[in-house]
Amino acid sequence: MQETNLSENAKETLMQINVLSAYQTTAEEFFTKIIDWKADLVLDVRLKNTNQLAGFTKQEDLEYFTHVIAHADYAHDVEYSPSKALLDAYLDEGMPYEEYFAQYEAELKERHAIPDFFKKYGKYHSIAIVGTATKKRHSHAEELKKLLEDHDGEH
Q: Is residue 155 part of a domain?
């Protein structure tokens, strides 16, 4: 993913947001991106990040590796994850991505998650958001980045 400047609200803090996937990557590729981006926060927005299938990106391991390898903070924040019901509908029941994203955006609005993001994480200069995109499937992390970029600070 390419580095992108955010809205005027985020530009005031010189924040950079990047997205990377915990899937279909090696530890070397994953942490090289974080280091290259000079991320000072790795924000894990995956709903499910504790099972063995997560490999080196399992929550406890990722938190440790983030501190030791990338010298960055780590946060797992499900405020930015889709609800379990919505995620299940997308992954298991074949919900079209456009519908999934629209419902995900509605959930974030209901939670006031986007304005909260800047309150919680505004002190960081470079944030790497961890999602679950694959070659065949989009991740909500990609959409979260778009919503953050579009945020005007008024809501």
A: no
Residue 68 lies in a domain: yes
Residue 101: inside a domain:
no
Domain count across the chain: 1
pTM value is: 0.83
pLDDT in tens, the chain (155 residues): 434 444 444 444 578 999 998 877 888 999 999 999 999 999 999 887 655 544 556 557 789 989 999 999 999 999 999 999 999 999 899 999 999 999 999 999 999 999 999 999 999 999 999 988 777 777 899 999 999 988 866 44
Which range marks the domain in which residue 51 is found?
A: 4-76+120-145
Dist CA 46 CA 58 (whole Å): 10
CA torsion, ordered 129, 130, 134, 140, to nearest 10 deg: -60
